[in-house]
Design goal:
The complex is a heterodimer of chains A (about 270) and B (about 350). Chain A has about 270 residues and is of the alpha/beta class. Chain A contains seven helices and 15 strands. In chain A, the strands form three sheets. In chain A, strands 11-10-9-12-8-1-6-7-13 form a nine-stranded mixed β-sheet, sandwiched between helices. In chain B, α3 crosses α4 and α5 runs parallel beside α9.
Chain lengths: ~270, ~350
């Protein structure tokens, strides 16, 4: 079983700051981390290979050279090896161009070792789109299953996998043929502490870095900014809704005012 | 080439023969875009034994409904739905194509956009169109939420977007509206499918009823720590409300993800929304701003939550919430005029 996990380096949006004058992201303010959903995807690959008793976990990322950090982080969690595609030709890619570049890298990886399963996080916390995973599946012509909350069974001889997929009010139990691509939710597992040998391996690990020239049969017009149909037209501060009313006085006075206002609204509670 | 593309389409998501609310909301939003562009609005309805739903699609604003009614389409699957939608889009060439930002809508739109090599904007919260250039302006919160970005797709068609549930308004349905139903065949066999839906398990308790709650008490990181956050639960218990929280709170592990309100959580429209210790980043605000009556409690008088609040209390939640709980409890014991539960 060869599992490839696609991971992304993202700014930690909890700490991110916006320059109020220019409305742009102050990247220096945000430390770069492994996208949390992707960490769960790596953890799930570790869990699956442990359950089967064998297998290889590769991680793949696209980004600037410093993105090797998220590959090292994935090695810590338990991945065996990592690939980074890094080239100016990839810069400025939207989700369509990103899925193209990653699918080309996946084709190269699977030439040396056929890929059975591709795992991705549900979405990246910086873009929040969730579009790259299904896009990769489409390009490789394998079925995607998104929003996975459990990998219940992997049947290697039958080449099938049984998955629970979260839907709005419950879940679906899905059987998919391997190879397929899954995007995972956080509740699929909990991230375990990395064992010491993994940490040592990660510290020393040097991932394979490929430029665009290392990939085969690439149509450069589909890469980066050139290959991205979407552009950011403008940025704006959202229109402020009509200003609310502030209650006056000390805490007790404000509470009394609020209770009076709510006593008017008590029918609203009745529907509960 | 791009001139061949005309019309606004909405993917009509149905589950168990019931149309999802977001699809009706999108018909309302799509109607406005279609009127501005002076083109028809069409619904795309896929499933099994669902043809009768096309009446509802028309009542909510569509001029046309493309229907693919086939056993293989019974349950949503990316591979079957994607092929059906791609065939329709290639045949009829819409210029704008909207999907609800649900699990299935996002999944489908991503696959379709890849195949059609066109742009897709995720989780849109505002839609408009630049009529002269026939450009869809799809806006969404960006960079963790303090600003909005308008995404354009200038050179590819259709222009596609997924749209958050509950941020657009559905039209009042008009059962007398006329429209055209266009049935399309589909050449798909169950044996060719690589995924099978074995069963669908509905979990009614899991949702915590956040989406349907009439009253929501939500807390933010301003509560300080998990212990203080219990005050949120206590207030909610007292008035029979459902608990919600911000992304920070969920990431801190104080609440499960199902209880997150905002861009990456639930978009909700309760009658009453308490925002306590919540600063009001746009990411959170898009998820709750359509609540009818919003009460904000926050120490920081500059907090943007006060801009959306119906009533704001500037003060320390740790002081105010216990007093509120006490007052509500006393009111309940008195029975009389303030029996909220």
């Amino acid at each position: 079983m060869h599992i490839v996990v696609c991971v992304k380096q993202v700014p930690d949006t909890k700490i991110i700051k916006i320059n109020p004058k220019t409305n742009t992201l102050d990247r220096r303010s945000a430390p770069a981390i492994l996208n949390p959903y992707d960490a769960h995807a790596v953890q799930e690959a570790v869990r699956i290979t442990k359950a089967i008793g064998k297998g290889t976990i590769s991680v793949l990322s696209m980004g600037p050279p410093q993105a090797v950090a998220v590959i090292k982080k994935s090695i810590e969690i338990g991945a065996d090896r990592g690939f980074l595609i890094s080239d100016r030709a990839f810069a400025g890619a939207d989700t369509l161009a990103t899925s193209y570049a990653l699918s080309k890298a996946l084709e190269r990886i699977s030439k040396d070792m056929p890929v059975d399963l591709i795992l991705c996080g549900k979405h990246a916390i910086d873009g929040d789109t969730g579009q790259v995973g299904p896009g990769i599946a489409r390009r490789l012509d394998i079925p995607p299953v998104t929003n996975v909350i459990e990998v219940a069974e992997v049947n290697e001889s039958e080449k099938t996998i049984l998955i629970k997929r979260k839907i709005t009010d419950g879940y679906e139990l899905i059987q998919a043929q391997i190879p397929c691509l899954l995007t995972v939710e956080k509740e699929i597992n909990s991230i375990e502490y990395s064992p010491m040998p993994n940490m040592i391996k990660a510290a020393r690990y040097e991932p394979v870095i490929w430029s665009v020239n290392d990939l085969e049969g690439v149509d450069r017009t589909q890469l980066g900014l050139k290959g991205s149909p979407t552009i950011v037209g403008k940025m704006f501060t959202p229109p402020k809704p009509e200003g609310g009313k502030r209650l006056e006085g000390n805490a007790d006075e404000q509470i009394q005012q609020l209770l009076e206002l709510l006593s008017d609204k008590k029918e609203l509670f009745a529907g509960k | 080439m791009m001139d061949e593309y005309r019309g606004v389409w909405v993917f009509i998501e149905q589950n168990d023969g019931k149309i999802e609310g977001v699809s009706l909301e999108l018909l309302g939003a799509g109607r406005k875009l279609a009127d501005k562009l002076e083109v028809p609005l069409s619904g795309v309805l896929l499933g099994y034994e669902i043809k009768s739903l096309s009446r509802e699609v028309i009542a909510y604003g569509a001029d046309q409904v493309y229907v693919i009614d086939h056993e293989v389409m019974k349950d949503y699957r990316t591979e079957s739905y994607m092929k059906a939608v791609i065939n329709l889009a290639e045949k009829y060439k819409p210029e704008i194509f909207l999907y609800g930002a649900t699990s299935n809508g996002k999944d489908l739109a991503s696959a379709v956009a890849t195949d059609l090599s066109t742009g897709l904007t995720a989780d849109t919260t505002m839609l408009d169109v630049e009529v002269e250039k026939r450009l869809l302006e799809a806006s969404r919160p960006a960079f963790g939420g303090n600003i909005m970005a308008t995404i354009l797709c200038k050179k590819h068609r259709p222009q596609m977007a997924t749209v958050r549930p509950k941020v657009m308004k559905a039209m009042e349905p008009d059962p007398d509206r006329h429209g055209e139903v266009i049935e399309e065949p589909i050449a798909l066999r169950e044996d060719d499918m690589r995924t099978k839906v074995i069963k669908i398990v509905k979990d009614v308790t899991k949702k915590v009823n956040l989406a349907e709650a009439h009253v929501v008490v939500a807390g933010g990181k301003g509560m300080g720590d998990l212990q203080n956050f219990q005050l949120i639960h206590e207030l909610a218990d007292t008035i029979g409300a459902t608990v919600g929280g911000t992304r920070d709170v969920v990431e801190a592990g104080w609440l499960p993800h199902e209880q997150q309100v905002g861009q990456t959580g639930e978009t909700i429209t309760p009658k009453i929304y308490f925002a306590i210790g919540i600063s009001g980043a746009i990411q959170h605000v898009v998820g709750m701003k359509n609540s009818e009556f919003i009460i904000a409690i926050n120490k920081d008088p500059q907090a943007p939550i006060f801009d959306v609040a119906t009533y704001g209390i500037v003060g320390d939640a740790l002081e105010i919430v216990p007093k509120l709980i006490k007052e509500f409890k006393e009111a309940r014991e008195r029975g009389g005029e303030m029996s909220y539960v």
